[in-house]
Design brief:
alpha+beta, globular, binds copper (II) ion
Length: 283
């Protein structure tokens, strides 16, 4: 029995090698591990192009931003007794009314037009909704402009074992801070993202413009006018306490900041205002 399982693992591994050898060379994405299904999601102003149905388990998602504004894709799983209509009605009322109806399941963080971001998430069967919370210049979040799409996660074929994802670093989301290396090497890498807080958290990464400082960022966040003093460099969207995900990065040298835009349910203040802001250098 054990022998059989070992052989099966070996076959799967070899298949992965063959597939990797034959597949097209992907410049900006990293093959995360053998046998993880890949899906692509496109964002435009203001819609998602995404598969209507995916199988449960580990899924690698590549978001490509074909719009003129920054976008992200947040996956949220509706609680078992909640319908898409009920969630939308609650969201129209307020985010505070809608959030208890879902669990946050990660997603590809905010990227500028023309860029892409790959992440790996673990999905359980159920009804999901894809959301973009990024605001336009008028202050209205994209989801209010129609940037919302349903997605069904169905029970997949039996996976003997979860494939293991090799991570170059593990970073922690805490109430209200990040545990991540102060210095990061440039180039392609995978970060395992773990939410060890009691609240929902995310990591959004911005790259400071030449000669720009944290003060410039703070001033822009307070009063967003003109061009931002930073570029959106991806990240991993909000996940529930105790959950994990994987973030693929290809960072160029420079000064970066990790941020969490998730609001505190009690006060409505973004976690970044409560200390969830951390500068780091890539060199
Ligand atoms: Cu947070």
């Amino acid at each position: 029995m054990l022998h059989h399982k070992f052989l099966l693992t070996l076959v799967v591994l070899l298949m992965g090698v063959v597939l990797a050898a034959c597949g097209p060379a992907a410049a900006s994405t990293i093959a995360p591990a053998v046998n993880i299904p890949q899906i692509s999601i496109k964002s435009t102003d203001y819609a998602f192009e995404a598969p209507a149905k995916v199988e449960a388990g580990l899924v690698s998602i590549t978001l490509t931003n074909e719009g003129k504004e920054p976008h992200h894709v947040q996956l949220a799983r509706l609680n078992d007794d909640v319908t898409q209509e009920q969630f939308q009605a609650a969201l129209q009322e307020s985010p505070e009314a809608a959030f208890p109806l879902v669990t946050f399941a990660g997603g590809a963080g905010i990227i500028d037009p023309g860029n892409s971001q790959q992440v790996t998430v673990e999905l359980t069967p159920g009804q999901y909704v894809l959301l973009c919370f990024v605001p336009s210049h008028d202050g209205m979040p994209h989801l209010a402009k129609g940037m919302m799409a349903p997605m069904e996660v169905v029970k997949g074929s039996e996976q003997a074992e979860m494939p293991e994802i090799k991570a170059d670093a593990t970073i922690k989301l805490l109430d209200f801070s990040f545990a991540l290396p102060a210095e990061v090497k440039p180039g392609q890498q995978v970060w395992k993202v773990v939410n060890e807080g009691k609240q929902v958290h995310e990591i959004a990464i911005i790259k400071l413009g030449e000669g720009r400082t944290m003060e410039d960022v703070a001033a822009f966040m307070k009063d967003p006018h003109g061009l931002p003093p930073f570029a959106d460099a991806g990240g991993f969207q909000a996940i529930d306490p105790g959950d994990v995900g994987w973030l693929n990065l290809n960072l160029q040298p420079g000064n970066y900041v990790a941020l969490c835009y998730v609001p505190d349910p009690a006060t409505g203040h973004a976690h970044m205002e409560m200390g969830m802001v951390m500068p780091f250098t890539v060199k």
